[in-house]
Specification:
The structure holds three protein chains of three kinds. Chain A is built from nine helices and nine strands. By secondary structure, chain A is α+β, with helices and mostly antiparallel strands. Chain A has two domains: 211 residues, Alpha-Beta Plaits, CATH 3.30.70; 54 residues. By secondary structure, chain B is an all-alpha fold. Chain B has a domain of 150 residues. The longest helix of chain B has 41 residues. Classes of the chains: A alpha+beta, B mainly alpha, C mainly alpha. At the B-C interface, helix 1, helix 4, helix 8 and helix 9 of B face helix 16 of C.
Chain lengths: 276, 233, 649
């Protein structure tokens, strides 16, 4: 199964029963919520809650979870490659590689990765789209648990087509946007709803440009800068050295006492310093 | 009052305990380093190590010296036994340790603790009286020699009253606060005063043993005898 | 006797003592216990100050190396060694600070084996690592010159090192350029979070130029300070040259920063009346504008006071720039703020203090500055045999460690006293205040058809009460303590369970003689198992201190809850049978959390009923949606603010 998979969440069907949350907690043995400062910032994801329901006025229950971006900012930021985008779709985390720099928390536009703040050996915790289940041909635990089929699983192409089908079938109900089709280059979790879903991210409109591109624009200059600075410095050294040498030679040749030589200048100055 | 007690048995206690432990470790390290330095500088290859060791151990338990001043010696022995045993092996203290750190060890029976506490208080007073009565020791005594036994007696006296509220004429909380604060003060005083002999004793003994073993006939010309004439001591 | 240097060292040793204890707490109980970091502020003071600002403050090393070795301005050579030493210690401090901040510091070597060319942080890590090695090699000659290393092997190494100075300097400049700028590039990936006044596609250029300016000013400040503490003459003539260079560089920095904003059209944001724009102007003025202008005036840059003021401002301002980018201007949701815990400050200051102490150590023993240091300022103390007062025959070099070790211990004890409980005993979940069940004015219109749901509304929503409505206070409960309320039909439950006599089947299943006291009277913290026992009232009820023996067996040595008589020995008749929530054998002295209690109570009861009488109670009642359904939850979640108001009245 190397075809990119995706989760489609239809917010209009969600009743907010949190069966998905429970299923997730069982699957990953997350235990009781460990409340921590900062939890409930824009949702109540935490190191012990990979997915949650954000309730919005007007009977809207919006599921928050990792979006599994097609070009994930977290994976591009990761210094050791602990976060990886798999061909199947999930962005997975390798705790053995992680060194705990938390740059992924800084980089994620959806504020998804959370940290084991209360542990002496902390890891980054986030949804992995049940990658282990996918490899065995299964579907994510949350999708399996949903009693309303509000959140479903399939190939990304299928899900996108289905989402668009629903949008066109019911144009009055839905906001005419598949959230995740283009955002930050597209995500593997698609959402349709009757309210705008911009609140799920740090900014209402994240734009369609993949975030790693922004970094790459500066990173690709690194070899050039390294060579350029190296060359420049060597060049300057050579020129300065040559000029000093020439000046010294000419001073010697003329045999004058005039202190035109920078080395002499230096000597004089240091002498005057001693006088002070 | 409750807040004060909480502070005294919480942060203040931890600070005092840390200060005592680290302070004693510091004394140990410095004294060991000094001994090492002195030995190296003296350069005496014929140090009678066996004799030094036996003398050091002997002075740790000066049983044969008890006869010199029997009453004072016995008071002092009682005082030391009580002062060391009660704080460490009092059942209530062990319960506190267990609650805070889940460490515990066997406790003294409460009756034994009570008796030892009374002994500690009485012998502390007795030590001070005897010290001030005898002319010889009066000349050697500093202020802290009189003050320390009395200061150490305070947590014992207040602790006894805390344990037996029926005999306590003062408000319970006041006694309790006094007990905790005075105990903390004693902990802080340990590394700053001569109470530090609790860990330093074998080492100071060792130092003086080493110092007494200059070469024979060294006389006033120690430097010459050691072959270190002209060097700073 | 107490020279400036002694006082400085004494203060530094106290800080180091505090730092040592915080270190123990940090590595035994983790980041959460010793910092105020959270998921919305993943990078705090330790990254903002120790790493970001620390690297920038150490920029003097490569700037001065370039000035002297590459540009041949030999007259600045006296500054090179101190600058290199500062840079070396600065980068070690950065590495140490990073060890504190990393969640898994023992994995700090992982970037060396897992190369991630697409990660800016990877580039920074590699450059810093290599540059630290370069600095070590650049500084090594200063150590090897010491008479201690006057052996053939070391002399040969020294000769080799002197020969490779130039390649080392060039490598150092390349690496510095790359990582000084890349520290800015780190934030390119977060345009959604970094404030537009600080975010810029060329932020790496700003970081680099500001680092050069800061490096020059840091060298100046350091010369002034070491002149003050070591009491040697400060060469203001040379420093004024550095000042002029800094003036130009800082001017360029301002030009790029403002110009870039103007070109991108975000400069307008700087003139809005907001906290952020004020901060922006303050920071820009302090770090660059004012120092650049002042340093351009010859009279000012030739005076010690002028140089001190300008370098101090730049250092402060540039540190602030780093911290602003990393913390202050980095968005967090409304209502969430971050201010470092004192333990965070203690670690940051402790690392700096330790670095300064090492700096002083090297300066006193090696030829870092050209002027020789004053030796043996402290007179020998007279002899005494008291090991306690630590007096001895030895010179200052030996007595000083005694003073400093004592101060170290004082600092350590102070730190222990003030460490937060979580840092000593580990993290506990946060305190969650508990409010009683709330009521709100509403009305019920009874449905004529039996079995169909009644219409429920709130007076404030509708305005006028519809005809036939029955005004009643509606009970709402918030089982998860998350502000998501649901309606609770108290009357219905009461009626069905058998009137007033049924109270005890829900309320207070374990408490003696209690009918309807609210939970928070005993369970002060919802997430923490607490003692459900009021000792004070028991003391009062058993004739004060005389009653101890009634519960505490006199033969038991210690009076604690573990050795006391069990509650049911006395209160057997008043404890309800068949408690639903907690297993009394298992956790007889602790209370369950609010959510578990509420949910356990509701759901367990419904499950039991459905099992016992399947006909009467539908199975679906145990489902979440029995309570958390559209009709209830949603309306109430909209009403949270109003509910809060009514509570405060």
């Amino acid at each position: 199964m190397s075809e990119p998979m995706a989760i489609l969440t239809d917010v209009t069907r969600c009743t907010g029963c949190e069966k998905c949350v429970d299923a997730c907690k069982v699957e990953y043995e997350l235990g009781d919520d460990r409340p921590w400062r900062g939890q409930g910032a824009i949702d109540d994801l935490s190191a012990s809650r990979f997915t949650t329901i954000v309730n919005k006025p007007g009977n809207h229950h919006v599921r928050q979870q990792c979006r599994h971006c097609l070009e994930p900012a977290c994976a591009s930021a990761c210094i050791v490659g602990a976060l990886q985008k798999t061909p199947e779709g999930p962005v997975i985390y390798d705790a053995k590689k992680c060194m705990g720099c938390r740059y992924c928390l800084m980089a994620c536009p959806f504020d998804i990765p959370r940290y084991d703040w209360d542990r002496a050996v902390p890891y980054v915790r986030k949804c992995t789209m049940c990658y282990d289940r996918l490899k065995e041909g299964g579907i994510p635990a949350c999708v399996e648990a949903c009693p309303e089929e509000a959140t479903i699983f399939g190939t990304r192409a299928e899900m996108l087509a289905l989402a668009k089908q629903r949008l066109s079938d019911n144009p009055d109900l839905y906001v005419q946007q598949v959230y995740g089709e283009h955002e930050v280059g597209g995500t593997s979790v698609l959402m349709i709803a009757s309210i705008p879903l911009g609140f799920l991210a740090w900014k209402d409109n994240l734009g369609n440009q993949p975030l790693p591109d922004l970094t790459w624009a500066s990173l690709k200059k690194v070899p050039g800068i390294a060579l350029g600075v190296g060359g420049l410095m060597t060049g300057v050294y050579w020129i300065v050295g040559r000029r000093m040498k020439l000046a010294a030679e000419s001073a010697e040749a003329c045999n004058t006492i005039e202190p035109t030589d920078p080395a002499d200048n230096q000597q004089q100055e240091s002498e005057s310093n001693h006088d002070q | 009052m409750e807040a004060l007690i909480e502070w005294a048995r919480g942060p203040f206690f931890w600070a005092a305990l840390t200060f005592m432990v680290l302070g004693l470790l510091r004394h140990l390290a410095i004294t060991l380093w000094d001994i090492f330095r002195v030995l190296r500088r003296a350069g005496d290859k014929n140090m009678p190590y066996k004799q030094i060791a036996t003398n050091t151990v002997k002075w740790l338990f000066p049983i044969d010296k008890v006869g010199n001043r029997f009453v004072l010696s016995m008071t002092s022995v009682c005082f030391h036994i009580a002062v060391i045993l009660v704080p460490i092996f009092l059942a209530g203290h062990i319960a506190l340790w267990k609650r805070g750190t889940s460490l515990s060890w066997p406790a003294l029976p409460n009756l034994a603790s009570d008796i030892l506490t009374i002994i500690a208080v009485i012998s502390a007073v007795a030590i001070v009286i005897q010290r001030s009565m005898a002319k010889a020791s009066r000349g050697l005594s500093r202020f802290q020699d009189y003050a320390l036994p009395l200061i150490i007696a305070i947590p014992f006296a207040t602790g006894f009253l805390v344990m037996h509220p029926q005999w306590n004429p003062f408000p319970f909380n006041v006694m309790f606060l006094l007990h905790v604060v005075s105990a903390n003060v004693v902990l802080i005083l340990v590394p700053l005063t001569k109470i530090s002999h609790c860990v330093l004793l074998p080492l100071t003994q060792l130092v003086s043993e080493v110092a007494w073993h200059f070469p024979e006939n060294a006389g006033s010309k120690v430097g010459v005898a050691l072959g270190k004439e002209g060097e700073p001591i | 006797m107490t020279s400036r240097l002694t006082i400085l060292k004494s203060i530094l040793w106290i800080i180091v003592g505090i730092w040592a204890m915080v270190t123990v707490a940090r590595f035994t109980h983790g980041l959460g216990a010793t910092t105020n970091l959270s998921d919305v502020t993943p990078w705090g003071l330790w990254i903002g100050f120790d790493v970001m600002a620390g690297v920038a403050l150490a920029a003097g090393g490569f700037v001065l190396a370039a000035t002297v070795y590459i540009f041949g301005l030999e007259r600045y050579r006296p500054f090179v060694r101190p600058a290199i030493l500062t840079a070396f210690l600065g980068y070690i401090a950065v590495a140490v600070g990073l060890l504190y901040d990393l969640g898994l510091p023992w994995n700090i070597w992982h970037p060396m084996i897992n190369w991630q060319h697409h990660s800016v942080l990877f580039e920074v890590a590699m450059c810093v690592m290599l540059y630290l090695s370069v600095l070590a090699l650049e500084f090594a000659p200063t150590i090897l010159e010491n008479s201690l290393f006057d052996r053939p092997l070391f002399r040969r190494i020294l000769a080799v090192l002197k020969k490779v100075t130039l390649p080392l300097v060039v490598a150092g400049i390349i690496l510095s350029t790359l990582h000084q700028s890349s520290l800015g590039s780190l934030f390119l990936i977060a345009p959604h979070r970094l404030h537009p006044l600080w975010y810029s596609p060329i932020i790496y250029l700003l970081f680099f130029v500001s680092a050069v300016g800061l490096g020059l000013m840091m060298v100046t400040l350091e010369s002034l300070l070491s002149g003050y503490f070591f009491k040697h003459k400060v060469n203001t003539k040379l420093l004024s040259g550095l000042g002029l260079a800094a003036s130009v560089v800082l001017g360029i920095y301002v030009a790029i920063r403002v110009g870039d904003m103007a070109i991108r059209g975000v400069l307008g944001g700087a003139f809005e009346a907001s906290w952020m724009s004020t901060l922006f102007w303050f920071e820009l003025c302090v770090c660059a504008v004012i120092p650049a202008i002042l340093l351009a005036i010859p009279r000012i840059r030739r005076s010690i006071a002028g140089l001190g003021l300008c370098s101090g401002m730049t250092v402060f301002g540039m540190v602030m720039y780093r911290i602003d980018v990393c913390i202050v201007a980095f968005a967090r949701p409304e209502g969430f703020s971050y201010f470092p815990h004192w333990t965070e400050f203690a670690v940051s200051l402790g690392i700096v203090a330790a670095a300064v102490l090492v700096f002083i150590f090297f300066v006193e023993r090696l030829k870092v500055y050209e002027h020789p240091m004053d030796q043996a300022e402290i007179p020998t103390i007279g002899p005494s045999f008291d090991p306690v007062t630590v007096r001895s025959l030895v010179p200052a070099a030996v007595t000083a460690p005694r003073r400093y070790s004592l101060l170290f211990i004082v600092g350590a004890s102070l730190a222990i006293a003030f460490l937060p409980q979580q840092a000593v005993l580990g993290t506990k979940p946060h305190y969650t205040p508990v409010a009683a069940t709330r009521t709100i004015d509403g009305f019920v219109i009874e449905n004529e058809k039996v079995g169909e749901p009644n219409t429920i509304g709130f007076i404030e929503d509708v305005g006028a009460i519809p005809a036939g409505a029955m005004v009643t206070p509606l009970i709402i409960i918030d089982g998860n303590r998350d502000g998501r309320l649901t309606l609770f039909n108290h009357q219905g439950h009461e009626d069905r369970l058998g009137g007033e006599e049924s109270c005890a089947s829900c309320h207070h299943l374990n408490m003696p003689m209690d009918r309807a006291s609210s939970c928070h009277e005993c369970h002060r913290d919802m997430y923490e198992p607490t003692l459900i026992f009021n000792h004070e009232s028991h003391v009062r009820g058993t004739d004060g201190n005389q009653g101890c023996v009634k519960c505490h067996d006199p033969s038991s040595a210690v009076k604690s809850y573990e050795t006391a008589t069990a509650c049911r020995e006395c209160h057997a008749e008043s404890i309800m049978s068949g408690p639903v929530i907690a297993d009394p054998e298992d956790r007889w002295n602790s209370a369950v959390g609010y959510m578990a209690a509420m949910h356990g109570l509701c759901r367990q009861c419904h499950i039991n009923k459905a099992e016992m009488t399947p006909g009467e109670f539908p199975v679906s009642l145990q489902d979440c949606r029995a309570c958390h359904n559209a009709n209830h939850t949603v309306i109430f979640s909209e009403m949270i603010p109003r509910v809060k108001n009514s509570e405060s009245q």
